[in-house]
Every structure is written in structure tokens, then in C-alpha cells.
UniProtKB/TrEMBL annotation:
<protein>
    <submittedName>
        <fullName>Uncharacterized protein</fullName>
    </submittedName>
</protein>
Length: 64
């Protein structure tokens, strides 16, 4: 299972359940999503397994 966090700019951070928020993402305050996450994409699952977290900025999503 994973936990999903958002910051004030609506950036996305996905962390393994029970793990702390990584220092890489300490650039702002993160709020835990109240919704329960049942499934994540394969890209997110692989990133969480290899790095322990997955982070995506909203501006990266707007470019696509």
C-alpha cells in the first residue's frame, strides 16, 4: 500500500505506507490525502519500489 501527499502547489508525492516523507521533497508542507488509494499505475509502483517514493510536479503534467 502507498500513501499520497499533496502540497500547496498541488504537486503529487507517493510514499510507501509507514515510511517518512523523503528529504528530497522537503521544499514545502505536504498534506496527506484523505482518500484511500487502491491502485496506482505501473510507473508509480516501479518508482516506489526502487526509490521509496514517487514525486510529480503539477507543471510537468501541464506541459503534456
Amino acid at each position: 500500500m502507498v500513501e499520497v501527499y499533496f502540497n500547496v502547489r498541488h504537486d503529487l508525492l507517493v510514499v510507501r505506507k509507514g515510511f517518512p516523507v523523503p528529504a528530497v521533497s522537503a521544499q514545502g508542507k505536504w498534506r496527506k490525502s484523505r482518500r484511500r488509494v487502491v491502485r496506482v499505475s505501473e510507473e508509480i509502483r516501479q518508482a516506489v519500489q526502487s526509490h521509496g517514493y514517487y514525486m510529480r510536479k503539477l507543471r510537468d503534467l501541464k506541459k503534456n
